[in-house]
Amino acid sequence: MGKAVLYSFRRCPYAMRARMALAVSGTEYEHREVVLRDKPPQMLEASPKGTVPVFVTAEGDVLEESIDLMRWALNRCDPEGWLDRDDPELVTANDGPFKHHLDRYKYSTRYHEVDPEEHGSAAVRHLRVLDDRLADSPYLCGERRGFADIAIFPFVRQFANADRDWFDAQDLPKVRHWLDELVSSELFAGIMAKHDRWVAD
């Protein structure tokens, strides 16, 4: 039996949430940092779709969706009880409509005839749902961080960092505080450590 392998890219929000679940679960694996414009053939052989994260278990099974990888890791070991604080509807809204608007706001030149301001405003409307939710508790599903928080916040971070001054001017006080707490956590700092690009021996 070999060692588990994670193909990852440091700044990818999907990979971030996967790395956080792997870290909190204590899963051991070999980290392989990739350059997305020059993906290693070993990664493409494991997952032809060519996006990160890709996780190859010690048994040789391949997990190529970040949410599946999070659940796999947490079902093995969930010391903080993240799976008890999940909200599939919120996560689906993040991965669907919010991500749609985020991409067209931040990367508007990649799309034909899109108005980044329109998509930025639409994304903020989504975040107001989170802001209302956070009025009742510091995290999306209670008093402690959980699955929903970790699955969602890397994308909110990406949106906020596209134009931080503009983001900070939006009426989202609870979201800003929630985001700052998660970004400043030891867990997030740990999974954002830099790795050299992986090259096969």
Task: Describe this protein's structure.
With 201 residues, the protein is α+β, with helices and mostly antiparallel strands. The chain has two domains: 5-79 and 187-191, Glutaredoxin (3-Layer(aba) Sandwich), CATH 3.40.30.10; 82-185, Glutathione S-transferase Yfyf (Class Pi), Chain A, domain 2. Helix content is 52%, strand content 6%. It has nine helices and four strands. The chain has helices at residues 13-25, 41-46, 66-76, 88-106, 116-133, 147-162, 164-168, 173-183, 186-191; strands spanning 5-8, 30-33, 54-56, 62-63. A four-stranded mixed sheet has the order 2-1-3-4. α4 (88-106) packs antiparallel against α5 (116-133). The longest helix has 19 residues, at 88-106. The relative contact order is 0.15. The mean pLDDT is 96.
